[in-house]
Design goal:
With about 375 residues, the protein is an alpha/beta fold. Helix content is about 30%, strand content about 25%. It is built from twelve helices and 17 strands. The chain starts with 14 loop residues before the first strand and ends in an 8-residue tail after the last strand.
């Protein structure tokens, strides 16, 4: 899991190496047939993929209720170069550098027609970014794939998916310049929130449980960081960090934990908004005071995933350089380092995003 890691050669021109999720904490590198595009499809040579907290969660649990069931090729944040195009594809040609989202809506259901594509009744997810080549289905090619701007580094471009999710979340809470925002959670997604919130002229405070994460939060332009073992232990410090000590305009639960979801409304002042962004486990339960939510007009909002519109906006933000995710990047690994990196993320020895370079470290 170092920059000196080497990559073994592919066994055959018709085969490729890829990470296969087989179950709980069980990922192996296998030789599989290199994909061939069907009508409307594209195959890319993966230049860079990013390993994120969702990947670590899926690895730890052995599945994802919506994205994949084992055995499955793994990884979903990607960029690469088109190596083959299927019949009917005219927007891209072989040799184009591309980057895209990890899903695509159907475009036909009631939610899609209403502009809420993240809730699509037939949302199609794509996996397999931790591989030398990757097949992009017709729907992703049609709705959620873009030319990668010249000069945008592959390891930065591959973050288009989480950045798109953050942009959707910020839109959901209707952030305004000058507002105060508390972000509960200092993982990469929480720190992308901090950077984008600060870029929009709002006041971003991050709650972190680790001092190392606090330093990265400052590099991501958080105005203040409160470090402590729990929300309850840090409640006074969190309120003291707000411009208005009665609470925040917005509280974002980016951790997706019962404790953070439980505490979020209590850290808002009157008229505040809570965004439930991090996904809690299905059996998580919280208890809020309906009277306080009602009389103080605290809105509970939520945001899941992204839409093609937000992915396109994320590409613009990254290409313009307004949002720099480089402080979040760990040392890159090749395919042989994927399992060890996942273990390190699950054990909190790695807290950022791990670039995976399928064709060998030094190629991205």
């Amino acid at each position: 899991m170092t920059g000196a890691e080497t990559q073994q050669p592919t066994s055959s021109p018709k085969m490729m190496r890829a990470a296969l999720l087989r179950g709980e904490r069980d990922v192996v590198i296998v030789d599989v047939a290199r994909p061939v595009p069907g009508p409307g499809e594209i195959v890319i040579r993966v230049e860079a993929a990013l390993m994120c907290g969702t990947d670590a969660k899926v690895y730890r649990r052995g599945y994802h209720a919506r994205m994949l069931s084992p055995p499955s090729l793994f990884g979903h944040e990607y960029t690469g170069v088109v190596s083959a195009v299927g019949e009917g594809v005219d927007a891209f040609v072989e040799g184009d550098a591309v980057v895209g989202g990890n899903s695509a809506p159907c475009g036909r259901c009631a939610y899609c027609r209403d502009g809420r594509a993240a809730l699509c009744d037939d949302l199609l997810f794509v996996n397999g970014a931790f591989a030398e080549w990757m097949l992009l289905p017709q729907r992703v090619v049609r709705y959620n794939l873009h030319a990668r701007p010249a000069g945008l580094a592959p390891t930065i471009a591959a973050s288009i998916e989480p950045v798109g999710c953050v942009l959707k979340g910020i839109e959901m809470v209707a952030l305004r310049a000058g507002e105060s925002v508390l972000i509960l959670g200092a993982g990469p997604i929480g720190l992308v929130f901090a950077a984008e919130i600060a870029a929009r002229g709002a006041h971003a405070v991050v709650f972190a449980r680790n001092a190392a994460a606090a330093e990265i939060a400052r590099r991501m332009h958080a105005h203040d960081v409160v470090v402590g073992p729990s929300i309850d232990a840090c409640r006074d410090a969190l309120l003291g960090a707000a411009p208005d000590t009665r609470g925040y305009d917005i509280v974002i639960d980016a951790a997706g934990a019962t404790a953070t979801s439980q505490a979020a409304p209590s850290l808002c002042h009157k008229g505040g908004r809570v965004l439930l962004f991090g996904g809690c486990s299905a059996d998580a339960r919280v208890t809020w005071e309906p009277a306080r939510l009602h009389y103080d007009e605290i809105a509970i909002l939520s945001s899941f995933h992204h839409t093609p519109r937000h992915v396109a906006a994320a590409l613009d933000v990254l290409a313009e350089g307004r949002l720099d995710i480089s402080p979040l990047l760990e040392e890159p690994v090749g395919l042989d380092g994927v399992a060890a990196a996942l273990d390190a993320m699950c054990d909190r020895r790695l807290r950022g995003k791990v670039p995976v370079l399928p064709h060998g470290v030094g190629t991205g």
